[in-house]
């Protein structure tokens, strides 16, 4: 069963925030230690940036397909 869009809109930022707060509590040098790609902190900062970019380009592609089909 798939989750609805409003549920995902609320759930994904909460999961991202939980991951960010977890890595902030676990990492001893939180902001400076996030540059290493092997660290969990790097990905907890990358996730909140990646999701809105993905949603934007997904909607942009969908809108382009809709406009192309109707013209």
Q: Which descriptors would you attach to this protein?
A:
single chain; 71 residues; mainly alpha; 2 helices
Shape: elongated
- Our measurement of the CA-to-CA distance between the termini, rounded to an integer number of angstroms, reads 35 Å
- Helix percentage range: over 70%
Q: Tell me the major beta sheet.
A: none
Protein structure class = mainly alpha
The total count of helices amounts to 2
Number of strands: 0
Give the low-pLDDT segments. Answer: none
Nearest-integer average pLDDT: 76
Percent range for β-strand residues: under 5%
Give the domain tally. 1
Spell the H/E element sequence. Answer: HH
Radius of gyration: 17 Å
Keywords: Membrane, Signal, Transmembrane, Transmembrane helix
Pfam family, one: PIG-Y
Transmembrane segments: 42-65
InterPro entries: PIG-Y
Describe the protein's architecture and organization.
Residues 1-23 form the signal peptide. One of its GO terms (biological process) is GPI anchor biosynthetic process. Keywords: Membrane, Signal, Transmembrane, Transmembrane helix. By secondary structure, the protein is mainly α. The protein has one domain (5-69). Helix content is 75%, strand content 0%. It has helices spanning 5-26, 40-70. Helix 1 runs antiparallel to helix 2 (40-70). The protein starts with a helix and ends with a helix.
